[in-house]
Amino acid sequence: GNRSLDPCGEGASGTFRSRATKARLTVRTFGIRRNEKIACYVTIRGDKAERILAKGLAVKEFELFEKNFSTSGNFGFGIDEHIDLGLKYDPSVGIYGMDFYIVLGRPGFRVARKKRKRGRVGVQHKITREDA
Predict the structure, then answer these.
(1) What span, in angstroms and rounded, lies between the C-alpha atoms of 67 and 54?
(2) Which residues contact 26 (CB under 8 A, 6 or more apart)?
(3) Going residue by residue through the chain (132 aa), what tens digit of pLDDT does each one get?
(4) Under a CB-based contact definition with an 8 Å cutoff, are residues 60 and 79 in contact?
């Protein structure tokens, strides 16, 4: 593989910040070394997230397995080729797969994450697998 290829290339993310994932171990069969950048991830919220999610679900024909849903109502799925999202194919980049992981929340979920006066999300307010 091309060692100089940065999966989180400049401008690849547009307006949001992408972060790189580094390899924990050297795996010779995969041709990766320890601390080498091997992937990147980005958090997207709001309208942009909904648009990208709609494209991703369209690739999966809006059907997911029950095992794709966690007990806390979050869900995830993967696609094999990023060009299925309607992106143009660039020979210098190649074809990449990507994983989507969607974390659902309701107004008031912040009480469990904030530093001061932290609280717990009540049982009635939690999102279940059925709600998702």
Answers:
(1) 20
(2) 32, 33, 34
(3) 333 344 455 444 455 677 888 889 988 888 888 988 888 888 888 888 888 888 888 888 888 888 888 888 788 888 888 777 777 787 887 888 888 888 888 888 888 888 888 887 777 787 877 777
(4) yes
- Ramachandran angles phi, psi of 76, nearest 5°: -150, 160
3-state secondary structure the chain: CCCCCCCCCCCCCCCCCCEEEECCCCECCCCECCCCEEEEECCCCHHHHHHHHHHHHHHCCCCCCHHHECCCCCEEEEECCHHHHCCCCCCCCCCCCEEEEECCCCCCHHHHCCCCCCCCCCCCCCCCCCCC
Q: Residues in the chain, how many? A: 132
Answer for the pair 90, 81: CB distance below 8 angstroms, yes or no: no
Question: What are the structure tokens assigned to 12, written together?
Answer: 């690849």
Query: Whose structure tokens read 């709001």?
Result: 46
